[in-house]
Write a structure and sequence with these properties.
Arc Repressor Mutant, subunit A, alpha/beta, globular, Rossmann fold, single chain, transcription regulation, Response regulator transcription factor, WH-like_DNA-bd_sf
């Protein structure tokens, strides 16, 4: 995993926390991110990361699942509760079940070891763009709060408010996907557009996991959906009128 072919690009001083117990891998990732002008702090255990999170919330956290002191998936769920913080799982576990579980836990992406440094940087940038995108209201909507079918969605905080008033925090990926639906209701949106990726593999099932998570939070029955309908071979359709405040 050489960095010799990388060309640094200026980043807006985004802060990334990395928890990785393998010193060589941690050093490599830290150097790559700093080469690209990210600020990066490295931790070698989950407890170290937890202590630091009490002091500051970063823009993104990269979590190795094989930690010496705690379950990596549990740590991902804890970080996910920070709402606006992006989450990337970096692991040697290649089983499909682990990938699905990681995405179900709220991770925005799942990267396998060994990895190509350029791919890691590209994915980090993609997630940070998604997180930043929620800071601005959609140009066509003129507001930051969407109302639909008795629900409300606050774009700035990724907060979904149910008809009974209860709140549900969304991950950056879920929030951006819901926003894309709300900006274009009653239109079929292709998978690539919903994920914000033009080069998505036809075998990439991460969108299906995120759609499933979003449906559960919207209390939408996947077998008889009222809001998010699967259009086979085309994408997904949001079946509700939407108003913006």
């Amino acid at each position: 995993m050489s960095t010799a072919t990388l060309t640094p690009a200026t980043e807006a001083d985004k802060l990334i926390f990395l928890v990785e117990d393998d010193l060589a891998v941690a050093r490599l990732i830290g150097n790559v991110l700093r080469d690209y002008h990210f600020r990066c702090e490295v931790f070698h255990s989950g407890s170290e990361l937890q202590r630091r999170l009490r002091q500051q919330v970063p823009d993104l956290v990269i979590v190795d699942l094989g930690l010496p002191d705690m379950d990596g998936m549990a740590l991902v769920r804890e970080v996910r509760a920070l709402r606006r913080c992006g989450v990337v799982i970096l692991t040697g576990r290649g089983h499909v079940g682990d990938r699905v579980m990681g995405l179900e836990s709220g991770a925005d992406d799942y990267i396998m070891k060994p990895f190509e440094p350029r791919e890691l940087v590209a994915r980090v940038r993609s997630i940070l763009r998604r997180c930043d995108g929620g800071q601005e209201a959609p140009a066509s909507a003129g507001g930051r709060v969407a109302s639909f079918a008795g629900w409300r969605y606050e774009v700035d905080s990724y907060t979904l408010i149910a008809p009974d008033g209860s709140e549900k925090a969304l991950s950056a990926g879920e929030g951006q996907m819901l926003q894309r639906f709300l900006e274009r209701p009653n239109r079929v949106l292709p998978r690539e557009q919903l994920l914000g990726q033009d080069d998505m593999s036809p075998y990439d099932r991460s969108i299906d996991v995120r759609i499933s998570r979003l449906r559960r939070k919207l209390e939408d029955d996947s077998y008889s959906p009222r809001m998010i309908k699967t259009v086979y071979g085309a994408g997904y359709l949001f079946l509700s009128a939407v108003s913006w405040e």
